[in-house]
Amino acid sequence: MAGTKNLLLRLDPALAEQLAAVAEVEERPVSDVVREAIRSLVDQRRADDEFQRRLKATASSHRQVLRTLEADER
Q1: Choosing a second label site near 45 at 20 to 30 A (CA), which of 11, 55, 56, 72?
Q2: How many CB atoms lie within 10 A of CB 34?
Q3: What secondary structure letter does DSSP report for 4?
Q4: Coil, strand, or helix at residue 29?
Q5: How far apart are the first and last CA of the chain?
Q6: pLDDT digit string, tens, across residues 16-69
Q7: What is the pLDDT of residue 27?
Q8: Which ranges of the chain would DSSP assign to H, the alpha helix?
């Protein structure tokens, strides 16, 4: 896959076994099942008002830190 990013994922052995079972039953690679789960989580967060509020608050604080650092460089 061009333009992809490799990630190292550590799972509890029991969860890894369950994941492998899901992939086997669905006759899909484990990586496809993991990508689907991650996509689902991201979609859930996009629709979660509380998460969006926290995301915006975090972004705001990062902007303030950047402004402070820029001022210190002058």
Answers
A1: 11
A2: 16
A3: -
A4: coil
A5: 44
A6: 999 999 999 999 999 999 999 999 999 999 999 999 999 998 888 888 888 888
A7: 98
A8: 13-26, 30-46, 49-73
pLDDT value, residue 39: 96
Select from 43, 63, 39 the least CA-distant residue to 51: 43
Token pair, residue 28, equals 């899909």
The whole-angstrom separation of Cα 57 and Cα 66 is 14
Burial 36-58 (b: 16+ CB within 10 A, else e): eeeeeeeeeeeeeeeeeeeeeee
Q: Which residues contact 22 (CB under 8 A, 6 or more apart)?
A: 33
Q: CB of 6 within 8 A of CB of 35?
A: no
